[in-house]
Amino acid sequence: MSSLIVVRAKGEDSEELVTMRADIFCLESARPRLGFVCRLKNALYTAISNLFLALLDHVKHHYKDWTFGREQNPYVGILHVRDSLIIPQDRKCLKKVWDRAVQFVEDNESRVRTELQRVAGADLRVWRWTQTRI
């Protein structure tokens, strides 16, 4: 997975890789031939792509579980998928990535249908897997 990372976050010690946003001292390119803006765009597109694949997998497995009687409904709430894939601390900083991944699903993915369903008395946006063979 580290080979997909385009920009590395480093701490004050130039050899120290950090994961906490507050500890970042500088950013370093894994592909120095690209300009900084290109590297940031590549990192964003990689994050969107990875999140898209993860949420697609989540919706597909939810549908599969429903076909075997392990889930009550054939659809899954969009916010539930987000909450399953992104930890609470990262939701704010990954909001743009999440929104772009959701938009990509709605615009380009024919196997997933977006619907409005009443769940526990509230109207929620949900995803339903529509491909019959899994």
UniProtKB/TrEMBL annotation:
<keyword id="KW-0597">Phosphoprotein</keyword>
<dbReference type="GO" id="GO:0005637">
    <property type="term" value="C:nuclear inner membrane"/>
</dbReference>
<dbReference type="GO" id="GO:0031490">
    <property type="term" value="F:chromatin DNA binding"/>
</dbReference>
<dbReference type="GO" id="GO:0006998">
    <property type="term" value="P:nuclear envelope organization"/>
</dbReference>
<dbReference type="GO" id="GO:0030514">
    <property type="term" value="P:negative regulation of BMP signaling pathway"/>
</dbReference>
<dbReference type="InterPro" id="IPR041885">
    <property type="entry name" value="MAN1_winged_helix_dom"/>
</dbReference>
<keyword id="KW-1133">Transmembrane helix</keyword>
<keyword id="KW-0812">Transmembrane</keyword>
<keyword id="KW-0472">Membrane</keyword>
<protein>
    <submittedName>
        <fullName>Uncharacterized protein</fullName>
    </submittedName>
</protein>
<keyword id="KW-0539">Nucleus</keyword>
<dbReference type="InterPro" id="IPR052277">
    <property type="entry name" value="INM_ESCRT-Associated"/>
</dbReference>
